[in-house]
């Protein structure tokens, strides 16, 4: 059976029956696996001939393994005997790889057997710690081992925080990555489909720059499906991975090399990350939050930025400008200058909008569920905070701008809106930072009363473009990235 020697993607198969394992192998092949690991310890069978049938009928090059520690077979002696017997059978049938625990490989009887068989390659495994890793920083030794080992090494950690040990393994010299079947998710293991369609690890090498979203939780991130294809589209040698980070300071103390070149910063680290930067862009400093950190190539310093601000404000400005050009044929410096911007929310997105609007000369009125938070932000931008309950009655003038930067209307509460349809009549333009769903109830109702609407998806695209430019030093394939985002929402 043909087998390539470069990086391989393997799917581990744990099945109760031989038939099920053969069927799963076919699916793994269709989803892009190069190799299947046949976990014989998971099988129930009455005679060795069934295992022989499995190996003979395999449709993918295979690793035959039998894990002693997880087997259900009762006595130690029985378990080891079964293991030795089946692994020998695999050698006799010239399977591509046999994997065995260090304990089994060091048995005299097995060592002799292995020595006399040259067709099958041997993988010796050692489970240093069977528990999941507790922190992403625990993975640093895995990368050190991979970089320094003189022989082919498969080294990885399991659990959701272990994911980057798989995705970044090939950069540090790893020869094999595990991927799960699409309907059998395993925490910390990428799916075969994501490896083939999103990460494309065959393009990763020692020079690949690592980027990622540091956040907790991190599973929802659309970043990988956007940035990875964009890197390839522009010919930039980079990979973007989700990084589940608990302690942002410890993360930056641990991953200090220039390989880790840039980061998107998500909930709940946007504020704490400011303190981890060597330099912070003045706007991000005033906002008090960074959503992007880049390791400057010239001196390795961490520089923090906030691309949320420009993304949301420029999306609003462009929509107003378009309207003005259509109406009057005249473009003003900032169409927000002198306008009243009513802001709902005083969290990260709210702060970015408030500082951006202030910088454009708008008058900022803030409504937030937690009034004290609204008051503090209003003070910082020389604006005004009003009680949240009075939002619907606040109609001092017509033609105002409304910006929702609260989580109201976000899935699963997509039937909610922060403002009544009637109150929306006072606004010329309504912006919603919420982007799941794309067309929120607030935007639908605003459109119905004749306001210009700007979706959070537009902000999302623009902040991602801003990040991509900072990551790559200028490149950003706008049309390509727009298309990718619009396909995802
Ligand atoms: N489009 C984009 O690119 C983009 C970027 C960033 C954020 N966002 C979206 O913007 C929204 C806010 O994100 P964030 O990062 O600013 O989050 P955040 O820092 O956690 O702030 C959440 C804000 O929502 C308010 N809020 C939450 N639940 C509420 C409820 N049931 N009723 C009233 N107010 C409520 C909070 O009010 P309290 O202060 O009273 O808790 C706070 O003002 C989210 O929907 C997020 O997905 C979009």
TrEMBL record:
Domain spans labelled Quinate/shikimate 5-dehydrogenase/glutamyl-tRNA reductase: 335-403
Domain SDH C-terminal as annotated: residue spans: 456-486
Keyword Amino-acid biosynthesis: yes
Species of origin: Salix viminalis (Common osier)
Listed name of the protein: shikimate dehydrogenase (NADP(+))
Alphabetical keyword list: Amino-acid biosynthesis, Aromatic amino acid biosynthesis, NADP, Oxidoreductase
One Pfam family here: Shikimate_dh_N
NCBIfam families: aroE
